[in-house]
């Protein structure tokens, strides 16, 4: 069975479910066993682990000849953000107060790379391009994390505002965001999971659980969380969110029981990280 997502995305799902808030380190060999169920090779898992250690997302611990993996504080922050996206923020914005966050910027050609990085970060943070050099997102957003390390200074202006006639909020949504593309992603999720037997080729519910959570987190991370009142009444995110919660509940117990038999954990961590 070929995985639907990159190994690192699957690894974040695995760690968010089976490592976050547990205070344990997980034997790397048992992680390899879990990912084999997803069709991910041992080489790809080891490469993913090495990259995440290098990026200070995982720490290696030694116990005898075994290498265990523990979360760093940076990884915990990333995983907790993902958990908020999944279980608190959700896919449907029903509480919008009419406020928009505006980010305006004008960068010289000599800062072309910084301009590209800024645009990429704005998209990730739920912003859409309204017009040249002006991006918007619904709600009041703290963009300090978006701007960190880019050193843009006076080249960027951040404001909050509300639309006034002749500007309509619905027009802003239509101009700045590709509504149809967002809807297509949710429909693809439904085509995969809103069926009688999702992923019949998957070996068990542990594999399905990790694929489900990975698919859903990628969806909600790409969703700008637009106000529901300005989206079509048949907006597919509504049904998709219901399906995710139903499937997550369905897989939770059998997946955890299986994980308990597969995972070799070191309670309380393993002291100082090692280099092995």
Automatic annotation (TrEMBL):
PANTHER family, per the entry: PHENYLACETIC ACID REGULATOR-RELATED TRANSCRIPTIONAL REPRESSOR (PTHR30319), TRANSCRIPTIONAL REPRESSOR PAAX (PTHR30319:SF1)
InterPro entries in alphabetical order: PaaX-like_central, PaaX-like_N, PaaX_C, PaaX_trns_reg, WH-like_DNA-bd_sf, WH_DNA-bd_sf
Organism whose genome encodes this protein: Acrocarpospora phusangensis
Any one biological process term the GO annotation gives: DNA-templated transcription
Pfam families reported for this sequence: PaaX, PaaX_C, PaaX_M
Protein name from the UniProt record: PaaX family transcriptional regulator
Domain Transcriptional repressor PaaX-like central Cas2-like residue range list: 94-173
Domain named Transcriptional repressor PaaX-like C-terminal: residues: 177-258
Residues covered by the Transcriptional repressor PaaX-like N-terminal domain: 6-74
